[in-house]
Amino acid sequence: xxxxxxxxxxxxxxxxxxxxxxxxxxxxxxxxxxxxxxxxxxxxxxxxxxxxxxxxxxxxxxxxxxxxxxxxxxxxxxxxxxxxxxxxxxxxxxxxxxxxxxxxxxxxxxxxxxxxxxxxxxxxxxxxxxxxxxxxxxxxxxxxxxxxxxxxxxxxxxxxxxxxxxxxxxxxxxxxxxxxxxxxxxxxxxxxxxxxxxxxxxxxxxxxxxxxxxxxxxxxxxxxxxxxxxxxxxxxxxxxxxxxxxxxxxxxxxxxxxxxxxxxxxxxxxxxxxxxxxxxxxxxxxxxxxxxxxxxxxxxxxxxxxxxxxxxxxxxxxxxxxxxxxxxxxxxxxxxxxxxxxxxxxxxxxxxxxxxxxxxxxxxxxxxxxxxxxxxxxxxxxxxxxxxxxxxxxxxxxxxxxxxxxxxxxxxxxxxxxxxxxxxxxxxxxxxxxxxxxxxxxxxxxxxxxxxxxxxxxxxxxxxxxxxxxxxxxxxxx
Length: 478
What we know:
single chain, alpha+beta, six-stranded antiparallel sheet, 18 strands
């Protein structure tokens, strides 16, 4: 590994760890004078840390080689190795300190994107003084990893490409990759960074780095914005002074930096988005452009691939018209709740009244608009974490975990009132909508989860039979 130029920075971490426990690392003076610094690499130094703290295993993540480990011996349990490795990968992406106590082990991990390090200590009884000492030693080690890279003779383009590869390996989702992308951009450019992804009819800010204004994340951008122009043309666009790189209409305009440069991210000839550096445009001769070029070249295809996977996964679980979960995902959630769960839960079936009449009178586009309108009202009516699904043509389901019958009835009534009070607006006219709701709760009054769907369905049928625009709940006879 090409890290030996900074071995003393790494040894400082190992020495600090050793001295904490009264150890001393000594090298024979004569040998040092004749041969220079001992030929230790990252693994050897981390292994010194592992031994100093009596850990059974240590992990590292770096830009050149990715994830690796050092072991006390071949008998370290595989599940412990996997658990610690995953924690260090997480720390290398989010830059935080993580401590996890299992019954037989304590895992400590720190990171500074894209680097991370961790140790797995035997037992769970380590006090906070011990844990903080390990964390401090690991932080020094990670700082040494970064210093070693900066002093390395490895070409910067290869280092950046390695960082991007590590980014992809460590991020499990498109959202995770987006967050890691902006942090990597900030590390390279020392500026606040935002990532924008293109969509069919707009562009949206999907992630911002730590130095950027967090209120920007998730915002859609106007087609007239400089960033949107960069996405549309595939040409970088820069703004200066008070001209906002994100364009007009962006809420919360108290940001200190409005100027910026939007660099398109390309997948072949297709623009997949833009990396936005906030602040004044870069000098064309700025050395960091040598790092930025490889980053932009590598990110485009990788983000396109990640988004393709994300979209495919989304299509498998989402109703394409309403954006709600589909029937298969709804049934999976019910099955996952498990027959042995002691937590209460409530299922609400909702049916849009007289939907066929609306379809026949106004046409299918109006019917689709009505379904989408109801879907948005359902999402507003429930808590984060509750599931709303479209399970049939005009039928919806709301799955409320940790919700008993009384609270579930309140939610169902809130849903019914909300839809009745907010008519569909179509072609400039308002059309009132009503719904019928059937509710069933577990374990009271429905004692078997397997009977919950049939009980809710029967309650829904009863609501329609009794005149619609009402809520009926299942009794204990199911």
